[in-house]
Amino acid sequence: MRITSRRRGLTLGAITASAVVLSSLTIAAAPAQATVTGLGGPVGVLQTVTVTDTGPNLPGQSTCTVLPTINGATQLAVTGTLNNGTLTFQWAPTSIGAATFSLPDCTTSSVIPAANITQVRTSTTISTPNTAQIGVATKVLVTVQSASPSAYAPTGQVVVRNANAAVLATMGLTAGPGTGQSFAYFWFTAPTAGTYFFQATYNGDSNATTSVSPQDTIIATPSGGTISLTAPSTMTQGVPVSLLATVLPNGVQGSVGFTVNGAPISASIPIVNNMASMLWTPNVVGAVTLGASYTTNQGGTGSTSSNVTVVAGPASRDVITLTQPGVGPWAVNGVYTLPNGARFTFAASTLSGAGARVATATRVFSRATPSQWSPETRRRRSRLRTRGTSARVARSACRIRPRARPTRDRTSRGGSPVAATAAGSGIRPTVRSTCSFSGPASAM
Fold this sequence. Notes:
Layout (H helix, E strand, L loop, with lengths): L1 H26 L8 E2 L3 E2 L4 E5 L2 E3 L6 E8 L2 E2 L3 E6 L2 E6 L5 E6 L3 E3 L6 E4 L3 E6 L3 E3 L3 E10 L10 E5 L5 E6 L1 E2 L5 E9 L4 E9 L8 E2 L3 E6 L5 E4 L3 E3 L4 E7 L6 E7 L2 E2 L4 E2 L4 E6 L5 E11 L4 E11 L8 E5 L3 E2 L6 E3 L8 E4 L5 E3 L16 H6 L3 E3 L3 E4 L5 E4 L17 E3 L6 E4 L2 E4 L2 E3 L1
Parallel strand pairs: 2-11, 13-21, 23-30
Antiparallel strand pairs: 1-3, 3-8, 4-10, 5-6, 5-7, 5-9, 7-8, 9-11, 12-14, 14-18, 15-16, 15-19, 17-18, 19-20, 19-21, 22-24, 24-28, 25-26, 25-27, 25-29, 29-30, 31-32, 31-34, 33-37, 35-39, 36-42, 37-41, 38-40
């Protein structure tokens, strides 16, 4: 019986010892991690971080100092607020890497986990004026922007290329002017008229990604606008001049209208090969303003103007040429043979390019010899009607005489001369012809 009691005592002692060991193991168990939210993300983005299971080291303390680190390097300290055991603070990481933080004046029973800080995305734009004047330097601006809401100002270089990928400029970035921005610029001078293309590439840095801008263009013209007007700076009243408007970019379709002192002097003139032109005869003297405006088929518009001077001067002599169908122009003092009784419609043109019209037709009268006259003809000695095979023109119908109005050709014996007027030339030249005929004739 005694032996049994001792065994029972040993059994109870063993159970008690086991209980002590199990109690020690429970006290040494690892604490649970605190809940941390909002930590991690792109460089420069303001992060709102919360940490649970946090308490102050001093009674009545309502804030905690937070010391962030990235890849073990301490960042600028920030201050968080405590509310019922939850700490809240804001922080914007300045570089990529593994980020964590410590709380030197607060206590948490949990381990704070690390988070990853990544590169921020960027976008690049290139800005140029729509137009530029040939030979005048024009500013080309490049801006690199971090993706919102990042405040990181990208660093490094941008490269500007043309449409053929040739490098025009390589530039370092300067921070600003806006939040999360950097910029660079250079000056471009267009050597000739035309359209110039630009594209910028940002090479990125350790904290920001690379990016490429959309293509931008500059249209270079003599005037610096999308339309330019070419005309003599000094003109003479009554003398026609050519006005030329050039519209860019290449291939534009539409029409141009011209004005003088704001008043229209032309209808819509189609744009052909980027140009539209007209012939204008100044009718005033002094300083005038020529204008040209265009409208494209897509609704685009533009205008320009030019100041010119119109001076008074003697009327310039113009030359009118008459052209016979099937023969060609009649030369001055030329000799031509026409069938008796035939009718012809002559075309008139001028040396200046001004319009011309034939005012009257030529009547032809016989200069037959007396041996060919009938008795009645001998009595009347005038108004003969030809009968024969041909008529010979002794003088050309293209002789120009700048008189105020056509005069009668005395040698034609009552005939009407050919009168041609040069429209807009300031003069009224007269074309006259003297005609004689060979062959039989009879009295009228």
